[in-house]
Specification:
This protein is an alpha+beta fold and about 150 residues long. Helix content is about 35%, strand content about 25%. It has a single domain, classed as 60s Ribosomal Protein L30, Chain: A.
Length: about 150
């Protein structure tokens, strides 16, 4: 009898643990607004987990296309940041909600120009950030930026 009760308790525990994991999965949302990226790409524009949004890397593309804006690093960096802003706003977030960004640059000698443009999108409260040089970026881009945004609940 004791063995049967122990088995029931263990199985109940395992079932309960499985329900906890499933409940956690229910809180994950895969977001595609279509306002920046075409919706037929094999990744989500963003994924929301609770009060945190993980934004896929954004390029300086003309919204709704796969065409990089013309005008060099300054124009491309500006469009990249505008695309981040548009994507965040489409999902109820703002630039002030960003807590971490990772910038990938094709040419690290353009870091100064990128940094000027990047800084213009914030007013004193900057997200944590990393910047690194890349050997190549999608669509021949010069810059890609991915971000994490969070709001208090």
């Amino acid at each position: 009898m004791k063995k049967a009760l122990l088995l029931v308790a263990v199985l109940g525990s395992l079932a309960s643990a499985g329900q906890t994991c499933a409940a956690g999965q229910d809180g994950i949302e895969y977001l595609n607004s279509g306002k920046v990226l075409p919706t037929n790409l094999p990744f989500s524009e963003a994924v929301r987990v609770g009060n945190t949004v993980y934004l896929s890397g954004q390029l300086g593309i003309v919204p709704g296309t796969r065409n990089i804006v013309e005008g060099g690093i300054r124009a491309e960096a500006r469009q990249t940041m505008e695309n981040i802003k548009t994507s965040l706003e489409a999902h109820g977030y703002a630039m002030t909600d960003l807590v971490k960004c990772t910038a990938m640059l094709l040419d690290m000698s353009e870091w100064g120009v990128f940094n000027e443009v990047y800084a213009s999108f914030f007013s004193g409260r900057y997200p944590a950030r990393s910047a690194l040089g890349a050997n190549g970026l999608a669509l021949g881009a010069r810059v890609e930026v991915e971000c994490i945004a969070a709001v208090s609940q």
